[in-house]
Specification:
Elements: H1 2-20, H2 29-70, H3 101-109
Length: about 120
């Protein structure tokens, strides 16, 4: 019975691996654009989070230095840190279309101007 269970499990795993190896169709241009926008939004979110972290670290450091000054300790900062850079609101500018075949189609579709006599 144990060999039968092992054989059945191996057969089931082989069948699953065949289904998992199927190729997916290439994403459409719209799906690629959505993915690019999502990646840009994720990158911007990371910048905003880094900015907020920087502001909070500055606030904690200022409170620490104020407490140390009240206690009579002179604690200058060990290293100078750059100011926090606010990334601003998220603005997505999609990349310009490639100047390859699509530009040729646009110029071919435009009618030629009539020649003057």
């Amino acid at each position: 019975m144990n060999r039968l269970a092992t054989l059945t499990t191996a057969l089931f795993a082989a069948l699953l691996s065949l289904g998992a190896s199927a190729k997916l169709p290439a994403p459409s241009d719209e799906a690629k654009a959505k993915a690019a926008e999502a990646a840009a939004k994720t990158a911007h979110t990371g910048k905003v989070e880094a900015y907020l972290l920087c502001k909070s670290m500055d606030k904690v450091a200022a409170a620490y230095l104020a407490d140390a000054k009240k206690a009579g300790k002179d604690t200058p900062p060990a290293t100078a840190t750059p100011p926090c850079a606010d990334p601003g609101p998220f603005v997505y500018a999609p990349p310009a279309p490639a100047s390859g075949a699509s530009a040729a189609v646009v110029t071919a579709a435009a009618p030629a101007a009539p020649a003057k006599k």
